[in-house]
Specification:
Elements (H helix, E strand, L loop, with lengths): L1 H37 L10 H26 L10 H25 L7 H31 L5 E6 L3 H12 L5 E3 L8 H10 L4 E5 L6 H13 L3 E5 L10 E6 L2 E6 L7 H37 L5 E7 L5 E7 L22 H8 L7 H6 L4 E3 L6 H8 L14 E3 L1 H4 L9 H17 L2 H17 L6
Parallel strand pairs: 1-2, 1-3, 3-4, 9-10
Antiparallel strand pairs: 5-6, 7-8
Helix pairs in contact: 1-2, 1-4, 2-3, 3-4
């Protein structure tokens, strides 16, 4: 498999061995603490290493075996180039949670508790912190390695469509993914393609859908790659196509494609997101809005005439209309509810300009969240006139209404915020919103909130 396989395999084996050793040592430390502080009988001295091993070797072996089984289940040691930090954190949370259950269970099977409940929780927290630190180090190390042009995976793109061009731009600007595109300037037949794959050590082939790749040629590529263990990927011709969100089910041995449910169609995910929204909004209202709201309200009143809060009809979950709250940032000339904001808009007041640049004008929307009309994170609600216009010209536009609109969203932290100067601006925003709808997770919400806070303090050049 070459140097690349050996490099990744070495990291996986090294991580596994270090993890097992760390869990073993931490367990010994906490067993010692149990003897010192929680043992029912006072001991004249703490037991030696061999004494601890003799007394608890079965429990230790069971815990280490459980660690390996859980790690395999959550794919803790699966290192992928396109792993995102939130995916790694998700694996760590699962690993720590399941291991916590095993420790409680093993401890309870002893005639006397192996560890007190308090020590079990502290041990699990210590393991969680250890995993976070080591994975963050590996994550950063691999990205830096790829940015320096080392351990790169060579890929070949066959055919061309609008999204294959976007993919090239993404990989050229984000070297940390570690994927190097081998350029091909001439038309390939299967013999030339095989020669190119072998000469350039191609590890993955990307076929552009509707990219002028003939059916017979495509089959030849698939057969060769399958015979030589080369991964094949398809670049969709449309990011809004249902074919990019399919599950494969089987009836007997016959494969059947089924369109995936969106995460927030699941009741348990709705409950989780609703709880998070309510808790976070109450926290902001108590800690921030309780004192900042009257300050901003006074500044708005001193700056211009009119109400403090501006209410505008927007569409939310399932297209239901609601009153969206914002601090008023404009002078009322009768067009505020129908005319979108533009760069250097003369309707914006002095205080309004500051509120918009810092996104503080959105703070009253936490009341929308508590009222159940909005979420902390989700697609930003557009003016109804924009919804009507773009739903007719952008396919899948209304998919964003499958979730509640958000105070902040993935499109905003990706830079697709501000004035809509052309249809492409809206298409970029909707593409990102659709990704969010299809790939929602609590960790993704937390990541977006973090990036939003960073943008507030750094300043967002797209804010108008």
């Amino acid at each position: 498999m070459g140097n690349q396989y050996k490099f990744n395999f070495s990291i996986k084996i090294g991580l596994f061995l270090i993890d097992v050793l760390a869990v073993f040592l931490l367990f010994l430390v906490f067993i010692t603490l149990q003897y010192k502080y929680y043992y029912p009988i006072h001991l004249s001295r703490l037991p030696y290493f061999l004494e601890i091993m003799t007394a608890h070797y079965k429990a230790i072996l069971l815990l280490l075996f459980s660690w390996v089984i859980i790690a395999d289940y959550v794919k803790l040691y699966s290192i992928k180039r396109l792993n995102y930090l939130r995916e790694i954190i998700k694996k760590i949370i699962y690993q720590s949670f399941f291991f916590l259950i095993i420790i409680f269970t093993v401890s309870g099977l002893k005639s006397e508790d192996l560890l007190s409940n308090k020590l079990v929780l502290i041990l699990t927290l210590s393991i969680f912190i250890y995993l976070i630190l080591t994975r963050f180090f590996i994550f950063s190390f691999l990205r830096k390695t790829h940015e320096r042009g080392r351990d790169l995976k060579n890929i070949l793109i066959v055919g061309e469509n609008v999204n294959s061009l976007k993919l090239k731009k993404i990989l050229e600007s984000r070297k940390h993914f570690g994927l190097r595109i081998i350029e091909n300037k001439e038309k390939l037949d299967i013999s030339k393609l095989i020669e190119l794959i072998n000469n350039e050590n191609i590890k993955e082939v990307y076929i552009s859908q509707s990219g002028f790749v003939e059916y017979e040629f495509e089959n030849q590529i698939l057969n060769y790659c399958e015979d030589n263990h080369i991964n094949v990927n398809y670049i969709p011709y449309s990011l809004n196509n249902d074919l990019i969100s399919l599950d494969v089910n089987y009836i007997d041995t016959l494969p059947i494609f089924k369109i995936k449910k969106y995460p927030l169609e699941e009741a348990n995910n709705q409950i989780t997101k609703s709880f998070f929204d309510t808790f976070f909004s109450l926290l902001v209202c108590i800690v921030v809005l309780s004192w900042l709201f009257p300050v901003i309200a006074l500044l708005i009143k001193l700056d211009s005439n009119g109400p403090v809060i501006f209410k505008q009809k927007r569409r939310g979950l399932n297209g239901k209309e609601f009153d969206c709250f914002k601090f008023r940032t404009m002078r009322n000339d009768g067009t505020n509810s129908i005319k979108a904001t533009v760069v250097n808009d003369n309707r914006i007041t002095k205080i309004g300009n500051i509120l918009r640049k810092t996104s503080l004008d959105e703070l009253p929307q936490f009341f929308n969240v508590l009222n159940g009309d909005m979420s902390i994170v989700g697609p930003r609600p557009h003016m109804i006139s924009q919804d009507i216009h773009y739903s007719e010209i952008i396919r899948k536009y209304n998919l964003r209404n499958y979730v509640k609109p958000g105070i902040t969203g993935l499109a905003q932290v990706k830079g697709y915020r501000g004035a809509i100067d052309c249809d492409k601006d809206m298409e970029d925003r909707i593409r990102t919103d659709i990704f969010y709808v299809r790939n929602w997770s609590t960790l993704l919400d937390i990541q977006i909130i973090y990036q939003t806070v960073v943008l507030i303090f750094k300043g967002d050049e797209n804010a108008i």
